[in-house]
Design a protein that fits this description.
203 residues, Rossmann fold, seven-stranded mixed β-sheet, globular, alpha/beta
Length: 203
């Protein structure tokens, strides 16, 4: 974790997030992502009163998520000392985070490609412990790097794993709804057959 703490300094965020020339995403894109997540969860009538944003970075999803779920409590979890000092996030990692009460919604967006195999395994296992209802999950995969992302902007100094590595672990505890959204198994959201991704059995 020490290496990650020193890596994610002011220069890293200036390059990948704050510079218009080299930014890999934007506030607008993250706000759209937050509204998408909220819209689907509201459609499923899922009550969201607590949110864990694991690897929250600059916190660009915090305000739009709380606009959609105004009664929710938000925790930004981040390894970067720089960001924790600047924004007041809770310093820590998903692999080590513990909570007495699971969160209704967990966000884990583009985080786990930055950690090694052992920590990634711990973090994936911990997702099932900290998530009560819904998970939004995304990570840069080997397939994304070779076929989809803009390599001139995307940080390639990461651990590139095949998508199946993540899917197989998520499938142990979650049902995939599509678009990066997962439901904790047993939530009982009633989806019609053609709303279900292929392979999702009716429960």
């Amino acid at each position: 974790m020490r290496a990650a703490v020193s890596r994610f300094d002011a220069a890293y965020y200036a390059r990948h997030y704050e510079s218009r020339r080299t930014a890999v995403t934007s506030r607008l894109e993250m706000a759209r992502r937050a509204r998408f997540i909220a819209a689907y969860l509201k459609y499923g009538e899922l009550s969201i009163r607590s949110i864990l944003d694991a690897g929250c970075g600059l916190g660009w999803m915090r305000r739009p998520l709380l606009a959609q779920f105004p009664s929710a409590r938000y925790l930004g979890l981040e390894v970067s000392e720089y960001l924790c000092r600047k924004h007041g996030w809770t310093q820590g990692s998903l692999a080590a985070h513990r909570t007495r009460t699971p969160y209704d919604l967990v966000i884990c967006y583009d985080v786990l490609q930055y950690v090694d195999e052992a920590e990634a395994r711990q973090a994936m296992a911990n997702l099932a412990r900290v998530t009560r209802r819904a998970l939004y999950f995304s990570a840069l995969t080997r397939e994304d790097w070779h076929y989809r992302c803009d390599q001139s902007l995307t940080d390639g100094n990461v651990h590139l794993r095949p998508a199946t590595w993540y899917r197989s672990r998520l499938a142990r505890h979650f049902d995939h709804l599509g678009g990066g959204l997962y439901l904790r198994r047993g939530m009982g959201v009633n989806l019609w057959e053609l709303e279900r991704p292929p392979g999702l059995e009716a429960r």
